[in-house]
Write a structure and sequence with these properties.
This protein has helices at about 1-20, 25-60, 65-80, 115-125, 145-150, 185-270, 275-305, 315-325, 350-365, 400, 420-430, and strands spanning about 85-90, 95-100, 130, 155-160, 165-175, 310-315, 335-340, 345-350, 370-380, 385-390, 435-440, 445-450. The protein is an alpha+beta fold. Among the domains are: about 1-60; about 310-450, Heat Shock Protein 90 (2-Layer Sandwich), CATH 3.30.565. It has a five-stranded antiparallel beta sheet with strand order 2-1-5-4-3, with helices on both faces. It has a five-stranded mixed beta sheet with strand order 7-9-10-12-11. The longest helix has about 90 residues, at about 185-270. It is rod-shaped, with a radius of gyration of 46 Å. The chain starts with a helix and ends in a 5-residue tail after the last strand.
């Protein structure tokens, strides 16, 4: 303001001197030109300051509705319009009035129709701004009913485009004949519209993201509920299968044991003490059935409550031999050993690893009902000790392979289908792996890899 006052005083002095012939007309024109240039610069500064303030306030809007209200308030104030509307584009050629305001900051109903729909549609279609100082005499809109009814005089409308995407349009008008919009007003509104369009795009993306997140959360909740129902159903089904399997598997050895005890009782009652082989045969049957029951109970106990590992240094070759000795071997099965004598000890729970080996050896024997060859092999790898149990039995089909390690799955008449599931759990608990290769009719090989040092 000080510069303007100084130039005004200088111009007055020049005019006074010019009247006395002491100041040339050129000097007076120069001073007046400087006055105009300074006033233009001050206006531009005010406009830039207004745009900066608008951009800062738009950036602070946290949601789309409040952002749109802020945009229309700033647009009306920026160009000193009487009313304003923010129009948002929707699917296809459709649009809706999302915010409306009078100059006195009172609301207008968005669906009131108090604006030129013809003008807005043209801006949205062409993506070009429109300035009309007197729309009543503008031939482009002479048939617009809203203009005639509302006595609209001057109109500004600019598209809201962000990164090539049409977001909508800003419309400002006035009915005051003494206040016409200018090209400078149009430039201001266009500058503000470019910032507003980016803010609207960001707010819409944020709104879409919130909706998607809400949908995703709902879907996750529904999925969890469904999963819990499936788990519960599977548990109930597993309990049913377990009860049926255990009842069958325990009843059979009990009946064999009862029969054995019955015949032993008859031998004693009848005084046949001269038949030790007969006594021994029945006692061996009872002992076998007791082992069978013990295995079932051990598998169930391990499966239901996984006891902590008791780690110690284990000679894997010795453990393989001991496990083999604990399995009843039919005369029709030939056993071959290929044990690496250089195999270092491993850190493991010997009882648990022996349970795995007994399970695998038992399965291999049962897979050779007509006899065959059982091969027990150990080997060394860089970080793992390797045990292989190989048979020349009936093999495993591709369909059976996919179910092999699932609890309660079995293809045999005896057993409850926990052996391999328990074995896998033990091996993986030792940070190892168990794998199987099989060819139907030719045999199966189970390979167990156990780390030399168990960490964690």
């Amino acid at each position: 303001m000080e510069v303007i006052n100084t130039l005004a005083a200088l111009a007055a002095e020049c005019e006074r001197l010019a009247a006395r012939g002491l100041c040339s007309a050129k000097v007076l024109d120069l001073v007046r030109s400087l006055q105009g240039d300074v006033q233009s610069l001050l206006r531009e500064r005010e406009e830039l300051a207004s745009l900066y303030a608008v951009a800062r306030e738009l950036a602070q809007a946290t949601d789309l509705p409040s952002l749109l209200e802020s945009i229309i308030d700033k647009a009306i104030a920026l160009v000193k319009g009487e009313r304003g509307f923010v129009v948002l584009g929707e699917n296809g050629d459709h649009y809706r009035v999302a915010a409306a305001r009078r100059f006195d900051e009172t609301d207008i109903q968005p669906d009131s129709g108090l604006y030129s729909t013809t003008l807005v549609r043209r801006v949205m279609t062409t993506r070009e701004p429109i300035l009309t100082t007197n729309i009543q005499t503008d031939e482009r809109f002479e048939l617009s009913q809203s203009i005639i009814l509302q006595d609209i005089r001057s109109v500004l409308a600019v598209p809201l485009v962000a990164r090539g995407e049409l977001q909508g349009a800003v419309y400002v008008d006035t009915r005051m004949s003494e206040r016409h919009f200018t090209e400078a007003d149009l430039r201001l509104l266009e500058a503000m519209a470019s910032q507003a369009a980016m803010a609207i795009r960001a707010a819409r993306l944020t709104e879409t993201l919130r909706e998607n997140n809400a949908q995703l959360e709902r879907a996750i909740r529904e999925l969890r509920e469904t999963q819990e129902q499936l788990v519960q159903a599977e548990r109930l089904a597993a309990v049913g299968r377990l009860a049926a399997s255990v009842a069958h598997e325990l009843r059979t050895p009990l009946m064999v044991m009862r029969s054995g005890l019955y015949f032993l009782d008859r031998l004693v009652t009848e005084g046949h003490f001269d038949s030790p082989e007969t006594f021994r045969r029945y006692i061996q049957k009872i002992d076998t059935e007791i082992d069978r029951q013990s295995k079932i109970i051990n598998d169930l106990l391990f499966f239901s409550r996984n006891r902590p590992r008791r780690l110690a240094s284990v000679d894997l070759n010795a453990l393989v031999k001991e496990s083999f000795m604990r399995v009843t071997m039919p005369e029709s099965v030939r056993v071959e050993e290929d044990l690496n004598t250089s195999l270092p000890p491993i850190l493991a729970d010997g009882d648990q690893i022996q349970q795995v080996l007994i399970n695998l050896i038992t399965n291999a024997v049962q897979a050779m009902p007509q006899g065959g060859t059982l091969t027990l092999r150990t080997a060394m790898e860089e970080h793992f000790a390797v045990v292989q149990v190989q048979d020349t039995g009936v093999g495993i089909t591709e369909e059976q392979m996919s179910q092999l390690f699932k609890p309660f799955y079995t293809t045999r008449e005896q057993g409850i289908g926990l052996g391999l599931a328990v074995s896998q759990s033990i091996v993986e608990g030792h940070r190892g792996t168990i794998s199987v290769e099989s060819t139907p009719g030719q045999g199966t090989t189970f390979t167990v890899r156990l780390p030399y040092e168990l960490i964690g």
